[in-house]
Every structure is written in C-alpha cells, then in structure tokens.
Specification:
The protein has 17 helices and 13 strands. With 439 residues, it is an alpha/beta fold. The chain folds into 2 domains: 223 residues, Type I PLP-dependent aspartate aminotransferase-like (Major domain) (Aspartate Aminotransferase, domain 2, 3-Layer(aba) Sandwich), CATH 3.40.640.10; 96 residues, Aspartate Aminotransferase, domain 1 (Alpha-Beta Complex), CATH 3.90.1150.10. Helix 9 runs parallel beside helix 10. The longest helix has 24 residues.
Length: 439
C-alpha cells in the first residue's frame, strides 16, 4: 500500500493522514458479514423462464413498464444487501477494505460489456446527471454551436439550454423526420448531415427515442460526422454525444461499434441494474476536450492536491463524495448477469417480442403504431395511439386488465410498451388482446 492510498483513505474516512497510518491494518481486513442473504434459484441463461424467475416483479401482471425504473435480478439484490449490511456493521472498515477493489472490478465489468478500455468509463447516478456533467463540461467557446434534434428528451434540451445561458453557446434543433413510422436511415442521416456547419462542435442525439421508440442509426450518423470532420483540426471537430439509455441493455451494440465520442446512460433501465446508477463512456480524444465541474475522489486528484504528484490529473466525469456504494458496487453483478445472457441474445429477444407486439397492435382497428416496424430503426419501446381514448386513460384501462404500461412525457403523448427480458410471448399476446378490448 503506497503513500497515496494511505493519504486518500485517511481523508475519505474523516481522519488525518497520520491517523490513517495507524488504522491501516484495520482498514485492510475484510470484515465478516454475518447472516448472508438467502440463496436464490440459480440462473439458467438459456431459459427465458429462468431469467424471469430472477426478478421479484409480479408476474400476474404483464410488466411493460419495467424499464422505467428497473427491478434488479436476484444476484444484484443479494450484492446490494451484502454491501449494505457490511457498511451498516462497520462503515469505515468496510468502505476502505472494499472501495478500491470494487471500483476496479466495476470498471472492468463495464468495459467488457461496452467495449474499449476500463479507463474510458466514469460512473454517475443517472442519465440526467451524466448529460448535465457532459454538456456542462465539454470545452466550448462563444460562437460554437451544438446541434441537437427536436426529438430529444428534456434532460438533453435542458442541459444544453443551461450551457447556452451560461457561455453564449448556440444550440440549434433540427427535425429529422415528420413521421417516425415512415422514417428511413437515409432521410435521418441526410437531414442531420446537411445541418452541420463549420461552427458545430457537438452533435447531441438520443439512441432510442423515448417519445416514439425510433432507434437512431448511430453508426451511419457517426460516419457522416466523420466525413464532416475529415479536414478539420481536432479542437474544431464535431463530437457525437449519445443519450443511450433506451438502447443500453436492449441493443447489441456498444459505443465502439457505433462510432460515437460519448455515450451516456443510466444503468437502472434496460440493464436492470441497481437504482441510482449510470455512466459516461468516452473516447480518449473526446475526454481531452472535457473539463470537469465536480471534484473527483480518484487517487490522481488527491495526489495533485496533496503535492505528491504535481501533474494535473486527467479530466474525470466521476463526481466525488460519498454515494450509495451498496448500489454502485452491485452494478458489477448487473453486468455479469447480462454477460451470462449475452448482449446478442438479449437484443434478439427484445426485438422479437417488440416485433410481435407491433404486428398485433397494427392489426387492431382504431390503433396507430407510432414506432417504426423495421428492427433497424427500433428496439424494445413500442408506442401507439388509440382513437378511442387518451394515452393516460389507456394506461388506466390496461392496468385494470393486468397490463402495466406508461405514457410518453412529450407533446404529443403516446401509449408506450417496453418489451424486455422480463416479458414473454404470453404477455405480448395478452396485451394485444387487452388493447383490442378497450379500443
């Protein structure tokens, strides 16, 4: 254990560096956690019934809104419980004995799932926190432009509005299509590409639109932006920043394959990770243009502050301070859970169920499916409207029939379903029948 770790542990524990030296042996010992959490039925990753059995969700209801604020599977719940008990029994000892190793393990698990290196990833509490940190921290000057779309969510639009109000940055919104159901890859890419200007420094888009279920062709967008950037110096190139929350854990693609510069996501939606967890992934060249606003608690920051290492640390998007560590550390088990299922099989399952649902809804008189039918332009979200009632009324009517859905928080608002690893074919067919009854 080096001087840096001792100093950092002393500071984080509310102790002086000298006191931390005396307490080092106690900090390094792994405390014994009595009364371990109960053992759950083992996961068979080849059985979707076994996957459903890992959750506490009420299967008497068809859970088409589970992605909103996920219920985690059994291994994640067990990890949360074990970490919480350890912290409750010996807060400082458990924190100091586990924090460093748990953070390293989590970074490695996330990098294995996402692709790229472990040091490309920083953890936050939510997508909104990640977007706020990212769009508030990218180095921009007055006159620089951020290009976003009319289809993005409040968190992106508001983060950019706050940045524009602070620094005089221009934010411009473009409409990529008139109707999502008839949108095409060529139309989306062409419209966005022709909207780029010499002043564009950031392109802010969403992977899967929570408003309509349309999945943006991020790889094709990235290629168009790369062509725009080809003859520009590095500091004048447009960075492709993606709100990935409704694709992350549902689509078989990572940021490396997609070609984006930054990917921001919560981990408590389609990944079914612990609540209050999220991340920001970025390429090294993109992180070089980022300026953090919240101090990190990583070792390099403390080394600089203490004078141990005079070099300024690399920018970090991980906000310091104490967090819900029992949830953050249990995120490792969420990545392991999805690794066991494989990203490909989860995506195929999600897409197949969504396709079945879209086909069934489209065959009902008085129902208009908003989400593109093509798997290339959709994922697990399926949005529709009923001529007979408002989306909110439809949610209530379906809930009375045991179908849990949601509405999109936009104008116009739609009835929204989410097919995922906690739904099955019987749920889909039941939902179709229920919509037919209320239409």
């Amino acid at each position: 254990m080096g001087e840096l770790s001792v100093s950092r542990r002393g500071l984080l524990g509310g102790l002086t560096a000298t006191a931390a030296l005396g307490a080092l042996s106690a900090c390094d010992a792994d405390p014994v956690v009595e009364n371990p959490p109960p053992v759950y039925a083992p996961l068979d990753p080849n059985s979707w019934d076994s996957v459903r059995q890992q959750f506490l969700l009420d299967t008497a209801r068809a859970q088409f809104a589970a992605f909103v604020f996920a219920s985690p599977p059994s291994d994640v719940r067990a990890a949360i419980a074990a970490h919480r008990e350890g912290l409750d029994r010996d807060t400082v000892g458990y924190l100091h004995s586990r924090e460093e190793n748990a953070r390293q393990r989590l970074h490695l698990a996330a990098a294995k799932y996402l692709g790229g290196s472990a040091d490309h990833i920083y953890f936050t509490d939510s997508t909104t926190m990640g977007l706020g940190l990212l769009y508030g921290g990218i180095a921009l000057r007055p006159g620089d432009e951020v290009l976003t779309t009319e289809h993005d969510f409040y968190s992106t639009h508001e983060s950019l509005r706050l940045r524009a109000a602070r620094d005089g940055v221009t934010v411009r919104k473009v409409r990529l299509f008139a109707e999502p159901a008839t949108a095409s890859v060529d139309q989306i890419v062409h419209t966005l590409a022709k909207s780029l200007t010499p002043a564009t420094r950031v392109v802010a888009v969403t992977w899967v639109h929570s408003s309509t279920g349309l999945r943006m062709p991020i790889r094709a967008v990235a290629d168009a932006i790369a062509e725009h950037n080809r003859d520009l110096p590095p500091d004048r190139r447009a960075l492709l920043c993606v709100d990935g929350v409704h694709g992350f854990g549902a689509v078989d693609a990572g940021p490396v394959e997609m070609g984006c510069d930054f990917l921001v996501s919560g981990c408590h939606k389609w990944l079914f990770g612990p609540r209050g967890t999220g991340l920001v992934w970025g390429r090294p060249e993109a992180w070089a243009r980022f300026r953090p606003a919240v101090p990190t608690f990583e070792q390099a920051g403390f080394a600089h502050w203490l004078g141990i290492d005079p070099a300024l640390p690399a920018p970090s998007a991980s906000p310091g301070g104490y967090h819900n560590f029992e949830h953050l550390w249990a995120l490792e088990q969420a990545f392991e859970f999805h690794a066991a299922l494989t990203r490909r099989r989860v995506a195929e399952r999600t897409t197949a169920l969504a396709g079945r649902l879209k086909e069934g809804l489209a065959a009902i008189d008085g129902v208009r499916v908003i989400t593109p039918r093509s798997p290339e332009l959709s994922a697990g979200l399926v949005c529709c409207e009923l001529k007979s009632m408002t989306p909110a009324s439809a949610v209530s009517a379906l809930l009375a029939k045991g179908i849990v859905t949601s509405t999109t928080p936009y104008d116009p608002s739609y009835l929204r379903f989410g097919t995922s690893i906690v739904t099955n074919e019987a749920d889909v067919d039941r939902a179709i029948a229920a919509v037919r009854e209320i239409s």
